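Below: protein 1.
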Amino acid sequence: MATRILIPSGVLGLGFDEAALWRGVASGPDLIAIDGGSTDSGPASLGTATSKYSRAVCLSEWRVLMQARARAGVPLVIGTCGTAGADACVDWMYDITCELARELGQTLRVARLYSEQEPAALARAYEAGRVSPLDPAPAIDAAAIGTMAHIVALAGAEQIQAALDSGADIVLAGRTTDTAIIAALPLARGAHAGAAWHGAKVGECGALCSTNPTSGVILLDVDETGFTVTPLADSAQCTPHSVSAHMLYENADPFLLHEPGGHLDVTAARYSAVDDRAVRVEGAEWVPAPSYRVKLEAARVAGYQTTLLAILRDAHYVRHARAWADRLERFLEAEIARRIAPDAYTMELRLIGVDATLGTLETTSGDPTEVGVLCIITAQDQAQATEIAKLVNPFLLHYPLTDNEELPTFAFPYSPVHSERGALYAFAMNHVLTLDDPMQAFRLQIDEVAHG
């Protein structure tokens, strides 16, 4: 017997085709699953334990999904709540859920699965040899673990199963692997383990495995031998190519995928078109690991930033923007060194419109009409970063390309030109934690949410 998972989108906050969602509800799913986060946008969300997505947008989309859950009469699961899956991010989604339960008149059993790790306990685990580095991983020790802003462990299928076993209508999970929230129920019902994990990998980003990635909604049917994936938007199709290609997405190996408790091997997988929309896949295998390990992610404060932005439009300076920026950097470094130790700060001049993204790797040529000069200053505290920015300010506005020409005047797009960005966060762990029991590093809280 197949287990049917309805996946509305690759992530809450990105949107989905509502008509397709309701077609999915009418098809009788066993569970609705959606991801809530990612590390794609860097460490700030984990460092601050805040969502990068708009609360208003998430509330709007979650309202529709809560209505869909009520009509389907099945659990609704979200993984990696609030972008990073920290405890505060889970509670942020819980507040949204409670607000909507009151609005919609729903009475719910809500399970919160917490993934955040207490630094002192993790430091003890490190000292006991239960924390191991992946490749690459920053160097850490017990003292460094104590300086982390937030640390999360990535839950797997077992932790999601524990939450579902509580009888929850809605599961709000902290940091999870993208696949765990999809694979958990088919695995619990005895589906083929390789098919469950492979189908979850294909379905993790919704319709990204189809010819219309932005449509969002797909159905995943997992059974004893394989899985079938079907996009539900009118304009979307799954093909053997679009489905097989998803193993390349965010994955170091196109045939292997590591998860808590083992790894997926799709070397022998076979992809075939069921019709002009759906694809059937069989042949993947699940390989259990000798120990149960979960990945750890952490963020730490790496400094404080202040930025400035100036615009070069004079054709002479636009044409020689890199030479001007290099000369200005050398001048400023000498000026700053008279007041501040060189190892107390960093400064970058990025040329927006020239090479701001790739730097020295940029291969395109040609002169733009104007160039934005973004100065990024990172220091040990905000006051020092801003002090350096104020030193830079007049030279960013009036510094010449050569000594024997008149002072130019550039443009600041706003005043004051400097902007305090606050703390700069860096990822600080790429490690795994060995557990004696899958729930050892996780906590469940069950609440009855009544609209009245």
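Below: protein 2.
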Amino acid sequence: MTTVVKIGGARAVDPEGALADVASLVEDGEDVVLTHGGSTAVDETLEELGEEPTYVETPGGVVGRFTDERTMDVFKMVMPGKLNTDLVESLQNEGVDAVGLSGTDGKLLEGKRKSAVRVKEDGKKKIKRGDHSGKIESVNADLLETVLAGGYTPVVSVPVLGKEKDGGYTAVNADADRAAAAIAGALEADLVLLTDVSGVYEDPDDESTKIESAATPEAFETVKDAAEGFMTKKVMAAEEALEGGASSVVVADANADEPISSALAGEGTTLEPGALDAGEAAQ
């Protein structure tokens, strides 16, 4: 069984424990694909360059980044550049023969570019143009399986390969949780989403209200209703992963001892395929 792990990019997330856990799993013969976020690092780099990150709200109320051309240049520099290289370096020091890949390598992650997005500003719906983002539509699972079969551990980063209307390609931004979800679905793997909280809480301010698991549609509705802020996208990604064929999804604490192993043992919020209605469409 393969495990896909996504390490969040929040400032409060320390990847050290997760990387040591990856090394333990690989030593035990497990296949692991590591993915990572990095929005915080991108924002910090933009600010160092004297530029402000731009976030927009969709008509559905989801807040996300607007990626203009300049921001896309910074993404290319930070995500597959510094962050991915740092993780590969750390894994090599843990004894893991890691290989860094971006979604553009070998058409690993591919989808259509969205050059314009619908946003809500001052209570009005508007079209904002010049975006460099996309929704992943295909995963080159053969590439990942080839890398894994060779004894290597892939470390995957956005950007992804965006198809233009003229048939060409442009590197575009995509949500890292949803990228991990697409990979987990394609590999029929377990997905572990590591973040700075221990799971999905019914009361976002009270860790004691953590939802342990969801194995029925009714239970999954409770999870979706409880998700707020950044957790909304993680639950959306979990749903897409399960619809795509993932074995399970766990939202768990990146800073726990042995965070991946403990998540797979049920320490986070575990979502099972039975939590989805048959034929349910991704939101």
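The mean pLDDT is 94.
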